[in-house]
Amino acid sequence: MSRFDAFSRSAPKLWTVPAGAPFLEILADSLASSADLEQDPSALADALIYVPNRRSARALAFALHNACGGERALLMPEIRALGDLETDDAPPGLDGAFDVLPPGISDEERVGELMRLVTAWYAGRGLPLPATAAFATAQELAALLDAGAMAGGVDWAQLPDLVEKFLLW
């Protein structure tokens, strides 16, 4: 049986695993055998693998470790979770897109500034707002701004009308 080489230019770009088969173990075994890690423990270091979530990323890393014998050192590929939105990693494909932007303020400064704006907005309406509520609102506002920036094409000018429309008081 010839050795499968997943990294050659002529290798297929799409593979399948039979239903019910242990997907991560088969993937790890295929990667380990095609990368020839016996000769070069860093053969997978430049690879980028996308998985559905962080649990899958940890399981794949463990499966790769086991597929390589579990005893020798190995430089792991970069394994990214697609489905975990709470991560600080840039979304897939946008790694270099942020390189042209000037350095931003820290997350703490950003939430602090948004917290100041939220508190002022409520104070302007004569509504006291506890610091914990202002902090939580600032974090949600930051998430909304991030989602809008990622979606693109958001018309922020409509936001005041939406806010007034959905306020219950």
Brief synopsis:
By secondary structure, this protein is mostly helical.
Structural class: mainly alpha
CA radius of gyration? 24 Å
The span between the termini is 73 Å
How would you describe the shape?
Answer: elongated
Main sheet?
2 strands, parallel
What oligomeric arrangement do these chains adopt? single chain
Helix content: 40-55%
Layout of helices and strands, plus pairs?
Elements: H1 23-35, E1 48-51, H2 54-67, E2 78-81, H3 107-124, H4 131-151, H5 159-166
Parallel strand pairs: 1-2
Helix pairs in contact: 1-2, 3-4
Care to describe what's here?
The mean pLDDT is 78. Strand 1, helix 2 and strand 2 form a beta-alpha-beta unit. Helix 1 packs across helix 2 and helix 3 packs across helix 4. The protein has 169 residues and is mainly alpha-helical. 11% of the residues are buried. The termini are far apart.
